[in-house]
Amino acid sequence: xxxxxxxxxxxxxxxxxxxxxxxxxxxxxxxxxxxxxxxxxxxxxxxxxxxxxxxxxxxxxxxxxxxxxxxxxxxxxxxxxxxxxxxxxxxxxxxxx
Length: 97
Hints:
The protein has helices at residues 2-6, 25-31, 45-48, 79-93, and strands spanning 15-17, 36-38, 55-59, 65-70. It is α+β, with helices and mostly antiparallel strands and 97 residues long. A two-stranded parallel sheet has the order 1-2. Strands 3-4 form a two-stranded antiparallel sheet.
């Protein structure tokens, strides 16, 4: 997020922890600099979004779904994948024309 901010791209990134994965949440949040929300049966985010582990769901400023990029399939250690996701964030942050 800091790299995007340095580029003048205004995005917000948050993580959503899957139901039944609460046991590792404390160590996860101490290792990263992202806000995290715990999914619940009432919220049903993972089900509603048909989420898979390590999905990045991009939405626009009105919270309208744009696309999904899976970090297991597209490892960010590969420069091309990193640049692709960064470009997706930039495009998502652009105002509608």
